[in-house]
Write a structure and sequence with these properties.
Structural class: mainly alpha
Number of strands: 4
Order of helices and strands: EEHHHHHEEH
Radius of gyration: 24 Å
Helix content: 55-70%
Distance between the termini: 48 Å
Strand content: under 5%
Largest sheet: 2 strands, antiparallel
Shape: flat
C-alpha cells in the first residue's frame, strides 16, 4: 500500500512533480527575459550594428508609445472592460496637436495641452456611454475607433505631419541622455510591478 507521500498524481513520485512545477514556475518567471536575450544575441550576430546606442535609442523610442498605450489598456482590461479606440484616440490627439503647432504656429506647450484635452474628450465620451448608458464597451470603443480614425485622416488630409519646431527634439525630448518617453515608460512599468 502506497502512502500519500509516495505519490501525488497517479503513479508519479512527489519529487518529479515538484521538479516539474518548479521548472514551470522558473520558466514562467524568466522565460520572456531568456527569449529576449536570445533574440538580441541572434540579431547582434546577424547584424553587428544592432547593439549600437543609436539603434537601441530608436527601438526604445518606438516601443515607448506602445508601452504607454498598453499600460493604459491594462488598467481597463483589469477592471473588466475593453477599449479598442486607444490607438486611434492617440492618433487624433497627435493630429490636433500637429495642426495647432505646425499650421497655426502655436507653442508646443499649448499643443500638448490640446492633445491631452483631445484624448480626455475621447475617453470621457467612451466612459459616459459605457458607465451611464450601460452600453457594451466593445461596441462603443469600436465605433469610437472608426470616428477617431476618420477625424484624424480628415484633419490631416491623409498625409504625415512634419515641420514641428526644433524645440520638439530639444528641451522636451531628452533627460540624462535618455529619451524622456523611455524614462516615463520605465517608471510606469516599474510602478506596476510593485
Amino acid at each position: 500500500m502506497k502512502s500519500k507521500v509516495d505519490t501525488l498524481v497517479g503513479e508519479k513520485p512527489v519529487a518529479t512533480v515538484t521538479y516539474q512545477v518548479r521548472s514551470w514556475r522558473l520558466f514562467n518567471r524568466f522565460g520572456p527575459a531568456i527569449m529576449l536575450m536570445a533574440v538580441v544575441a541572434g540579431m547582434s550576430i546577424a547584424h553587428p550594428d544592432f547593439l549600437t546606442i543609436s539603434n537601441l535609442m530608436t527601438i526604445g523610442l518606438q516601443a515607448t508609445v506602445r508601452a504607454l498605450l498598453a499600460i493604459g489598456e491594462l488598467l481597463v482590461i483589469i477592471s473588466g472592460g475593453i477599449d479598442l479606440s486607444v490607438g486611434t484616440a492617440m492618433s487624433l490627439s497627435m493630429v490636433t496637436m500637429g495642426l495647432y503647432v505646425i499650421n497655426s504656429h502655436g507653442s508646443l506647450e499649448i499643443g500638448m495641452l490640446i492633445a491631452i484635452a483631445t484624448g480626455v474628450l475621447v475617453g470621457l465620451l467612451n466612459g459616459t456611454l459605457v458607465a451611464f448608458l450601460g452600453l457594451p464597451p466593445f461596441i462603443i470603443t469600436l465605433g469610437m475607433l472608426g470616428i477617431a480614425q476618420g477625424l484624424a485622416l480628415t484633419l490631416s488630409s491623409g498625409f504625415s505631419m512634419y515641420g514641428f519646431p526644433k524645440s520638439v527634439s530639444g528641451k522636451w525630448s531628452w533627460l540624462m541622455h535618455l529619451p524622456l518617453g523611455v524614462i516615463i515608460a520605465g517608471y510606469d512599468l516599474g510602478t506596476l510591478s510593485d
